[in-house]
């Protein structure tokens, strides 16, 4: 219907309005104000409430963890550790084997998931455009990022049980489980980075007669490199703290095993959990004052501290890479 | 009835940056006053300072005073929320609440102020406000449809209806037609002409023909250079401003030689 | 083409370079094929997850039901003898804990997100965003450790107070367990863990609220909170829903924090403050797994499959909502 600007509608029969009816009462205005202040207070409170656990987690880990964290702890594994007794080296066992395990298993996961993830994103952004298949894959990547970690563990376990043989446990099996959790993150961050590479760059390169593959590897991926690197580091920081999938795939041992493809391996988070579940160490009645009953908990805290430090440093590096080397947005 | 506004020695700051310098202005009741001037001269900022809307930018503050019928809007005990109820505002682009029906949009302001409104009172108010905004005949059969289903010009008139439903004394319009097609613009301009019997209207516009068509008085804002504060260069009744301005800059501007 | 490259080629190529394969054509095709394969691999992997789990859980469906029943009876102390009788209480516990965590985290997350997007000064807001990210980065095993050793003893007085004063509500029926290795405590820890997810998504959407809508509300004389209610929350509605679903998905699958804190039980029980009432699927798998025999593992994998399907659906729903809203 067309506007009728010429008519003067107020003339005919606009209802007469007693505006006093709609005027706010003084008490209601005050009530509105009180509500506004109350909501502001609640919102600030929500924030403070969330800070409490964060501060508490970081603080207690730092305080408890620092007690047993020394070179001996970092350079020994758990062989020859009997109850709460001191080991010959004067320590109470350590996390060397767990650090080795964490590094190798995470490295394995990286080697599997970063190439796959990056290439999948390349397919989605550079080749598939907005095709139906691409949209389905995109959606499934999102959904995949929500798979519970324990299901990833069960998957790797089942796969190796079927393909290799029942009861197989190895570090690589853990890597496979972690890749399942890592691939979606890598795909998603790479996609985001490829999207902000300006189309002009691609067209300029293609117009020079450069093949698509070289355009992608030499121009597009290079431009997006910092984002991909920082995204991958953040993905690593995520999976490096995973426990549940490794419990059932990599197992748990007390000695150092450097072979990713054979034998059980311990990682830091699993170590934390195992020490936590021991609860108390035995101290025979004739043991000296060097025997500490609560040593498993103290070891758990110290390993947790090392883990938190690794995760936070990885996070920091990822953020710095993203910030410093970020391509300038338009 | 509309109320008059007196602006005395108004300086507007964003943080440490002085955006507008020493504005002195009398805005007459029940008249249309237009603000014109080149981009960045601070005309929108001054308009927004009249209902303290500029304060939603962090760090914004003013010195000087704005008197609404003699009452300083920037006095310590004045609540900006109450100011905005007395001084309504219509924005550059129509902005009805997307999740609300036409009826709910019109009632949005009053339902903030009152907990319970009798349905018949609400019906009357909706009809009154929509008639006031020249929109009643077009939407009376679909008041429960979403407000964003309307055309751009209808949406803008809906926003005007929403503003007048609160029954303000003053109506501020920040380039209300800049996003509208010519026909909708005409409809809104005619509406402004009708509304001034009930409200004091201040309108910012980039379109000088529009200022010449709708305004009784015109204020010309200018700035000395980019990065310098804007200021009120010249104020006159509209016919003087456009036919015989006593100010060189204003003459250059209205004759289209700069800006 | 530069003269160098054309010179290095056989002379015939200059005439028909438009149709003849140029150098790099093969690499181009291989690269494309690899990219395509990686895309398809995502589909394959997801299908493989379902298939391998199904295959490993098969003895449960196709195997001897008598042995299955014995294994399950062994797991449950004779309380259940078939799979659905076993997975039922687990599923109930999983959903109960996750839903509680969501209820707790929801309001706090929205509050923090609003604080960051609309209340805090800019510089403070950036710092807060970083803090929320740290909260997200802390591994779950550390939350479990902290929950088990710090929170459990610290929170007992509070739960005890709740049980005494609100005990007339069946949910809070006392006596509160001491140590409180209960659903209530676990839900609290899970809430802390999913808080950063919900916060960061909703914060981004709150920040996208059109300035125009906020001004519309303020121009009518709305207070800040009324502006948020009129403009920000309606605009962000679908984002809030999908963020909550993602948080829920995370809470459903969380293992370690539950495993390390909860004293498990297999009841259909709403007694949040009492110990040994419920258990979640994920924690149950991790707890029973080390001692399970082959059929036991099949049963556990069967429960894992149920968990997979549920989280898959929750996540799918969440993404669908986001997708629809962004159109």
Automatic annotation (TrEMBL), chain A:
Q: What is the protein's membrane topology class?
A: Multi-pass membrane protein
Keywords from the UniProt entry? Cell membrane, Membrane, Phosphate transport, Transmembrane, Transmembrane helix, Transport
UniProt feature coiled coil, ranges? none
Q: Name one GO biological process term.
A: phosphate ion transmembrane transport
| One GO location term (cellular component) | plasma membrane
A Pfam family it matches: BPD_transp_1
- Kindly list the GO molecular function terms attached to this UniProt entry: phosphate transmembrane transporter activity
Q: Which domain of life is it from?
A: Bacteria
Q: PROSITE patterns from the entry?
A: ABC_TM1 (PS50928)
Can you tell me where the transmembrane regions are?
41-62, 105-125, 137-163, 169-187, 219-240, 300-322
Q: Where in the cell is it found?
A: Cell membrane
- Using the record's annotation, list all stretches that form the ABC transmembrane type-1 domain: 99-318
InterPro entries, per this entry?
MetI-like, MetI-like_sf, Phosphate_PstA, Phosphate_transprt_permease
Q: According to its UniProt entry, what is the function of this protein? A: Part of the binding-protein-dependent transport system for phosphate; probably responsible for the translocation of the substrate across the membrane.
Q: Which family does it belong to?
A: Belongs to the binding-protein-dependent transport system permease family. CysTW subfamily.
Q: What is this protein called?
A: Phosphate transport system permease protein PstA
From TrEMBL, chain B:
Write one Pfam family the protein is assigned to.
ABC_tran
GO BP annotation list: phosphate ion transmembrane transport
Keyword annotations for this protein, in alphabetical order, are:
ATP-binding, Nucleotide-binding, Translocase, Transport
- What is one term from the GO cellular component aspect held by the record? membrane
The cross-references to SUPFAM superfamilies, in alphabetical order and at most eight, read: P-loop containing nucleoside triphosphate hydrolases (SSF52540)
Domain of life per record: Bacteria
UniProt GO molecular function: ATP binding; ATP hydrolysis activity; phosphate transmembrane transporter activity
SMART domains assigned: AAA (SM00382)
Q: Does the keyword Cell cycle apply?
A: no
Q: ABC transporter domain location, by residue? A: 5-248
Looking up PANTHER family in the UniProt record yields: ABC TRANSPORTER I FAMILY MEMBER 17
Entry protein name: Phosphate import ATP-binding protein PstB
TrEMBL record, chain C:
Family as reported in the entry's similarity comment: Belongs to the binding-protein-dependent transport system permease family. CysTW subfamily.
- Report TM segments: 33-55, 90-116, 128-159, 179-198, 239-262, 295-318
- Gene Ontology cellular component list: plasma membrane
Listed GO molecular functions? phosphate transmembrane transporter activity
Q: What is this protein called?
A: Phosphate transport system permease protein
Which parts of the sequence are annotated with region: Disordered? 1-20
Q: In which compartments does the protein localize?
A: Cell membrane
Q: Which UniProt keywords apply?
A: Cell membrane, Membrane, Phosphate transport, Transmembrane, Transmembrane helix, Transport
Query: Taxonomically, which superkingdom?
Result: Bacteria
Give the protein's biological function: Part of the binding-protein-dependent transport system for phosphate; probably responsible for the translocation of the substrate across the membrane.
Task: Give start-end ranges for the coiled-coil region(s).
Answer: none
Organism phylogeny: Bacteria, Bacillati, Actinomycetota, Actinomycetes, Bifidobacteriales
**Source species of the chain:** Bifidobacterium italicum
């Amino acid at each position: 219907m067309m506007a009728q600007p010429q008519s003067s509608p107020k003339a005919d029969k606009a209802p007469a309005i007693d505006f006093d009816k709609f005027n706010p009462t003084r008490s209601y205005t005050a009530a509105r104000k009180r509500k506004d202040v109350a909501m502001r207070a609640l919102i600030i409170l929500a924030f403070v409430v969330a800070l409490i656990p964060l501060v508490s987690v970081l603080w207690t880990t730092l305080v408890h963890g620092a007690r047993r964290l020394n070179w001996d702890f970092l350079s020994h594994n758990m062989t020859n550790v009997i109850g709460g007794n001191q080991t010959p080296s004067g320590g109470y066992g350590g996390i060397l084997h767990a650090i080795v395990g964490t590094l190798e298993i995470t490295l394995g996961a990286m080697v599997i998931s970063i190439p796959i993830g990056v290439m999948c994103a390349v397919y989605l952004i550079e080749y598939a455009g907005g095709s139906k298949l691409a949209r389905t894959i995109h959606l499934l990547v999102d959904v995949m990022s929500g798979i519970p970690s324990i299901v990833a563990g069960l998957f790797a376990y089942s796969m190796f049980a079927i393909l290799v043989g029942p009861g197989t446990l190895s570090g690589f099996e853990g890597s496979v489980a972690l890749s399942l959790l890592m691939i979606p993150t890598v795909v998603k961050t790479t996609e985001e980075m490829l999207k902000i590479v300006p189309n002009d760059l691609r067209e300029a390169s293609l117009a020079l007669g450069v093949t698509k593959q070289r355009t992608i590897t030499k121009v597009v991926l290079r431009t997006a490199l910092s984002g991909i690197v920082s995204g991958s580091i953040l993905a690593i920081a995520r999976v490096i703290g995973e426990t549940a999938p490794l419990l059932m795939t990599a197992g748990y041992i007390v000695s150092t095993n450097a072979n990713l493809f054979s034998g059980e391996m311990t990682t830091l988070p699993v170590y934390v959990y195992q020490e936590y579940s021991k609860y108390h160490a035995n101290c025979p009645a004739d043991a000296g004052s060097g025997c500490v009953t609560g040593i498993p908990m103290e070891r758990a805290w110290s390993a947790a501290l090392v883990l938190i430090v690794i995760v936070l440093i990885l996070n920091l590096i990822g953020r710095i890479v993203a910030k410093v080397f970020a391509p300038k947005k338009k | 009835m509309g109320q008059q506004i007196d602006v005395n020695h108004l300086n507007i700051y964003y943080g440490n940056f002085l955006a507008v310098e020493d504005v002195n202005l009398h805005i007459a009741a029940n008249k249309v006053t237009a603000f014109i001037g080149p981009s960045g001269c601070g005309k929108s900022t001054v308009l927004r300072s009249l209902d303290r809307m500029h304060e939603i930018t962090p760090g914004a503050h003013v010195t000087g005073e704005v008197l609404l019928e003699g009452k300083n809007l920037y006095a310590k005990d004045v609540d900006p929320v109450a100011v905005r109820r007395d001084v309504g505002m219509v924005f550059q682009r129509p902005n009805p609440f997307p999740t609300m029906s036409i009826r709910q949009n019109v009632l949005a302001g009053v339902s903030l102020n009152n907990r319970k409104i009798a349905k018949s009172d609400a019906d009357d108010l909706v009809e009154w406000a929509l008639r006031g905004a020249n929109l009643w005949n077009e939407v009376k059969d679909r008041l429960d449809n979403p407000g964003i289903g309307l055309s751009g010009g209808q949406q803008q008139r809906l926003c005007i209806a929403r503003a007048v439903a609160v029954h303000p004394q003053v109506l501020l319009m920040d380039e209300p037609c800049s996003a509208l097609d010519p026909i909708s613009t005409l409809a809104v301009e005619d509406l402004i002409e009708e509304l001034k019997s009930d409200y004091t209207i201040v309108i910012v516009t980039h379109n000088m023909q529009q200022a010449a068509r709708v305004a009784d008085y015109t204020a010309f804002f200018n700035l000395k250079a980019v990065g310098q504060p804007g200021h009120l260069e010249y104020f006159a009744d509209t016919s003087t401003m456009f036919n015989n301005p006593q100010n060189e800059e204003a003459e250059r501007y209205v004759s289209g030689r700069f800006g | 083409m530069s003269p160098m490259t054309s010179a290095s080629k056989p002379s015939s190529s200059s005439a028909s370079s438009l149709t003849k394969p140029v150098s790099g054509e093969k690499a181009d095709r291989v690269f494309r094929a690899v990219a395509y394969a990686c895309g398809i691999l995502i589909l394959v992997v997801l299908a493989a997850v379902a298939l391998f789990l199904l295959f490993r859980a098969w003895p449960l469906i196709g195997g001897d039901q008598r042995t299955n029943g014995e294994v399950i009876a062994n797991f449950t102390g004779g309380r259940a003898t078939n799979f659905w009788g076993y997975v039922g209480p687990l599923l109930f516990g999983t959903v109960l804990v996750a839903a509680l965590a969501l209820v707790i985290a929801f309001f706090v997350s929205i509050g923090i997100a609003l604080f960051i997007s609309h209340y805090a000064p800019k510089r403070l807001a950036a710092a807060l965003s970083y803090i929320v990210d740290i909260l997200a980065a802390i591994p779950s095993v550390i939350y479990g450790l902290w929950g088990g050793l710090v929170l459990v003893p610290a929170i007992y007085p509070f739960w005890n107070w709740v049980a005494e004063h609100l005990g007339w509500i069946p949910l809070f029926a006392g006596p509160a367990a001491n140590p409180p290795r209960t659903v209530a405590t676990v839900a609290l820890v899970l809430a802390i863990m999913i808080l950063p997810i919900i916060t960061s998504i909703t914060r981004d959407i709150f920040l996208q609220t059109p300035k125009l809508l906020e001004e519309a509300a303020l121009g009518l004389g709305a207070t800040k909170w009324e502006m948020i209610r009129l403009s920000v929350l309606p605009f962000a509605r679908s984002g809030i829903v999908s963020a909550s679903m993602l948080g829920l998905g995370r809470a459903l699958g969380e293992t370690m924090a539950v495993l390390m804190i909860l004293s498990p039980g297999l009841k259909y029980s709403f007694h949040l403050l009492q110990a040994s009432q419920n258990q979640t699927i994920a924690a149950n798998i991790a707890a029973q797994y080390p001692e399970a025999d082959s059929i036991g593992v099949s049963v556990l994998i069967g429960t894992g499959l149920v968990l997979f399907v549920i989280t898959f659906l929750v996540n799918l729903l969440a993404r669908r909502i986001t997708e629809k809203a962004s159109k």
